[in-house]
Design goal:
- The chain has a six-stranded parallel beta sheet, covered by helices on one side. Strands 7-6-8-9-10-12 form a six-stranded mixed beta sheet, sandwiched between helices.
- It is globular, with a radius of gyration of 23 Å.
- The chain has three domains: about 10-105 and about 240-265, Response regulator (Rossmann fold, 3-Layer(aba) Sandwich), CATH 3.40.50.2300; about 110-235, Response regulator (Rossmann fold); about 280-390, Homeodomain-like (Arc Repressor Mutant, subunit A, Orthogonal Bundle), CATH 1.10.10.
- By secondary structure, the chain is α/β, with parallel strands linked by helices.
- The protein has 17 helices and twelve strands.
Length: about 400
């Protein structure tokens, strides 16, 4: 690559803790950055390396943007705040700055809500329960509250097992709580570690999983979920989207000639991974819809239609549409449109292409139809959306619901 072009590339530093979750975030960052020759990504294999001295040396050499995902380096974050370098922070990290920073966090409300809807959709339980995490905080409380409120909207009550001030205690209290639940019960644990503990307590309480207690965790920690007996159904948070959205906001800040307002965006549930602890009445239908949804996400820009999706499923269009209506609440065609609209929104936000060019690149056959759909979904025209984005006002996506098994 010629040196003259290299000088114009945006140097982006990515500092994430080493974990499977961070790998998903990094995948989202690369998914956004791929195809953008203006990015040069430097990955730090450990946040411990992102010391104040390291940051100062790197900043002296030139940094155009930073994506970080940890609150465990307060001194470095303080220096980043003073530098004015655009930064996208994933998770609970914060800095003292009034511009050129974007905060990307998990929509904890959607976690509790989607878990409740999963249980409500598949059966009517004698009782519902939520088990708090001993290591939780605000995120745990928000998940539990959303779970409880979603059940209340369907006139169902929720029994809660509270967090204890002494972690690693005896599980006698949890066993007693499980024994108090009538059979069958639908239970959400705050995370997969908590769900694993509940699973062991069920064995002591002589509660069969999933016959007496249907159990969901959160996080889809595969090492735990797939090696438990029975294996654990889990709500999977869309961490890849965390990374994608962080990169999108960072790109907007780096491309702007003016400081951008502070942005906040929350990312929700990707899917519910169905295993033995909560198989669900619609397991086959759910897997069918997940397969179709994955195909749509990967091929929406290619102009696919309903027939292309059906060809991947080996079922009739009537049956496929029926399953989509049952689980997603709309047709296959509507799902294709929603995915394309999300792609269109991101393209308008991050490129200077004409609207016609953006529509073509996102798989639309013409620009008139998507213009109407876009205005209906986001409440403004594509031109108005692009104008508001350039002024630093980012419209949060209403998004599409991810189908669950």
């Amino acid at each position: 690559m010629p040196a003259t072009h290299e000088r114009h590339r945006k140097k982006v530093f990515v500092a994430l803790p080493f974990s499977p979750v961070s790998q998903q975030k990094l995948k989202g960052i690369f998914r956004y950055a791929n195809g953008r020759a203006s990015w040069s990504i430097e990955i730090l294999p450990s946040i411990d390396l992102f010391s104040v001295d390291f940051f100062k040396r790197a900043a002296a050499d030139g940094i155009d943007g930073i994506i970080a995902s940890s609150s465990e380096m307060p001194d470095t974050l303080h220096e980043i705040a003073k530098s004015g370098i655009p930064v996208a922070l994933i998770g609970n990290a914060t800095i003292k700055r009034s511009e050129n920073v974007a905060y990307i966090s998990t929509d904890e409300d959607s976690v509790g809500r989607e878990a409740a809807l999963f249980l409500l959709r598949d059966a009517h339980w004698a009782a519902y329960g939520y088990v708090h995490s001993d290591y939780g905080g605000g995120w745990d409380k928000r998940r539990g509250k959303a779970f409880r409120e979603a059940l209340a909207r369907h006139s169902e009550n929720c029994c809660e097992f509270p967090a204890e001030s002494t972690p690693n205690r005896s599980d006698e209290a949890l066993v007693a709580w499980l024994r108090s639940l009538p059979r069958p019960s639908g239970v959400l644990a705050a995370d997969d570690f908590c769900a694993y503990r509940v699973l062991k307590a069920c064995a002591v309480a002589n509660k069969r999983v999933p016959l007496d207690v249907t159990l969901l965790g959160v996080g889809n920690t595969e090492t735990i979920c797939e090696n438990s007996s029975p294996s654990l159904t889990s709500v999977e948070i869309d961490y890849e989207r965390h990374g994608y959205v962080a990169a999108m906001h960072l790109d907007r800040m780096m491309l702007s000639n003016h400081p951008q307002k502070v942005a906040h965006e929350r990312c929700g549930v990707r899917r519910i991974v169905v295993r033995e602890s909560a198989p669900g009445a619609n397991l086959h239908a759910g897997l069918l819809v997940q397969k179709a949804f994955s195909f749509i996400r990967e091929n929406a820009v290619r102009g696919i239609g309903v027939r292309d999706v059906i060809s991947q499923l080996n079922v009739s269009r009537t049956l496929a549409d029926l399953r989509f209506r049952e689980i997603v609440g709309r047709t296959i065609q509507g799902t294709i449109f929603d995915v394309r609209l999300e792609l269109t929104r991101n393209a308008l936000l991050t490129s200077d292409e004409s609207i016609a060019s953006v529509c073509a690149r996102c798989g639309w056959k013409s620009e008139n139809h998507p213009k109407k759909l876009f205005k209906k979904k986001f409440g403004m025209s594509m031109r108005e959306f692009r104008r508001s984005a350039s002024s630093g006002i980012v419209v949060p996506p209403r998004g599409w619901e991810v189908p669950h098994a």
